[in-house]
Amino acid sequence: MSQTRFFENSGFRLAYQDVGKGAAVLLIHGFASNMQVNWIAPGWVASLKDAGHRVVTIDNRGHGASAVSHDPEAYRPEHMADDAAALLDHLGIEQAHVFGYSMGARIAAFLALRHPHRVATLIFGGLGAGMVDGVGDWSKIAAALIARDPEEIADPLARRFRDFAEATRSDRRALAACIETSREELSEDEIRWITQPALVAVGTKDDIAGDPETLAGLLPRGTSFAIEGRDHMLSVGDRSFKQRVIEFLAEHPIS
């Protein structure tokens, strides 16, 4: 496995890994996750490397081995998108396929809008119409992350995220700050400015992401994929999802 390395952007020391050769795929993980949990353990890095890609993963600020802040302003999607662009600069990668899951999908969209020439294609996993319409009230999740006694958390979704944050040994105060600002929505017009080929993949049992076909319909070159029988968490490692992503990348090579 690749060694974790670090680079700096906007005062944050950020962790990344870089494996393989070929056209680059930049993987951006979801909220409360990290590159190990979201991409390495479920087999994404190995599968994409075996398919002939250079695979770059990043721990977003406030997550994994990267530096944290307890200031919500640090976690606006445009800042994390700029971190991703800075990593491409650091590695000398002119253009990459960009694959984000959940919060990472939102970051990927901001990256495409702010640095369009760096993005060859986009894969939005675990986020459909919620990119535009929002993904509900997450104040309960923020409260659960900083609650003293997890046994007092009544909301099932909030408890799931608290348990997940503890399992990943995350800084829960940083995650509570992140959740305040990282869910910034994009307008339909902004989505229409994303002209790269884009795949929107959401589990059929995902009750967080929103409809994938709606988002794909707004994207000029969007297409959707239903991850059958999977919820938000279980979609990540789905075999059919991996196969569709590999096919999509083969359909849109970087020239």
Q: Could you characterize the architecture of this molecule?
A:
By secondary structure, the chain is an alpha/beta fold. It has one domain (5-133, 184-251): Rossmann fold (3-Layer(aba) Sandwich), CATH 3.40.50. The chain is built from 11 helices and 8 strands. The chain has an 8-stranded mixed beta sheet with strand order 1-2-4-3-5-6-7-8, with helices on both faces. Helix 3 crosses helix 4. The radius of gyration is 17 Å and the shape is globular. The model has no long low-confidence stretch (mean pLDDT 95).
What would you say about this model in short?
The protein has 255 residues and is of the alpha/beta class. The protein contains 11 helices and 8 strands.
Q: According to CATH, what is the class?
A: Alpha Beta
Query: How far from one another are the termini?
Result: 28 Å
Q: What is the helical fraction, as a range of percent?
A: 25-40%
Low-confidence stretches are none
Q: What composes the largest sheet?
A: 8 strands, mixed
Mean pLDDT: 95
List SSEs in N-to-C order.
Answer: EEEHHEHEHEHHHHHEHEH
What's the CATH architecture name?
3-Layer(aba) Sandwich
Beta-strand proportion: 15-25%
Total domain count: 1
For the largest sheet, list the strands in their spatial order.
1-2-4-3-5-6-7-8
CA-based gyration radius: 17 Å
CATH fold label: Rossmann fold
**Can you count the beta strands?**
8
Please state the structural category.
alpha/beta
Distinct helical segment count = 11
So, the CATH homologous superfamily?
A: Alpha/Beta hydrolase fold, catalytic domain
Shape: globular
